[in-house]
Amino acid sequence: MRNKVTKAIFPVAGMGTRFLPATKSVPKEIMTLVDRPLVQYAIDEAREAGIKEFIFVTSRGKGALEDYFDHAPALEEELRRKGKTELLEVLQNTNMESGAIAYIRQHRALGLGHAVWCARRLIGDEPFAVMLPDDVIAADKPCLQQMVEAYEETGGNMVAAMEVAPEKSSSYGMLDIREDMGHMVDVKGMVEKPDADKSPSNLAVIGRYILAPTVLQNLNKLKSGSGGEIQLTDAIAAELDQNRKVYGYRFEGQRFDCGSKSGFLQATVSFGLGRPDLEADLRAYLHDIMQVDKAAQ
Ligand code: UTP
To answer: Are 155 and 293 part of one and the same domain?
Structure first.
């Protein structure tokens, strides 16, 4: 019997410099997509995939993120008193079971690999998921759930993969493919942020992973990879050197890079249009400004 994936690491210790000055005081993960913080989308996706333990790797200045997960009994009472049952339900759906969330501090931003390594004692000897809340994925079946189901068949390590334009390869970990099986690809190598002419394929890794605990041992041994940071990609690639499997999983769904301003704006429009209470107004507005644009050309 394969171990079930019940733990997820959320590395949120980065500085979020692309959103300065907002991130001077607001953690990026708390910024709102329509009316929910980015991190809520990641938590909901994790819950749907069967995750029971949520491990946040945080840093200085992320207090608002920790506060977000506190229950709000006074606010709940007020909503109950005023008969605002719908809002009460919205609020209660964000409540987490006591003890389900742990916070670990990454003392220096030494990279994603280092952030994951910081959580090693809470993972122990089990497979675990890693989720980057910056990557928001709109999908009928949540992306991590798709991956967990595939992982139950394959074991090994699994990374979410998506096709990108060649000039974008220098922003991603890129997969070197041994065999392409459609949804799944058998990976024979991984390269962190290669230039377009050095990229082994156009399949990029995005922020969802299911990893074997041996990846944490690989991180132990790593000093630093590309850019002086400790790269998660290098620790996963080391699995291949030790004859363990790595699969890429082409998920169904649309991924938004909410770590970038443009991706965040696109996600805002798309999620706004997906909301029945907002769709008509937003669509009319978008239509109007497109008309004005066209007229000006
Ligand atoms: P990014 O590369 O997007 O960095 O990290 P960032 O600091 O969040 O944002 P920018 O580039 O300065 O705008 C990808 C993910 O890895 C986490 C980040 O919090 C984010 O979820 N991370 C990165 C860490 O937890 N620790 C690190 O040392 C680096």
So the answer is: no
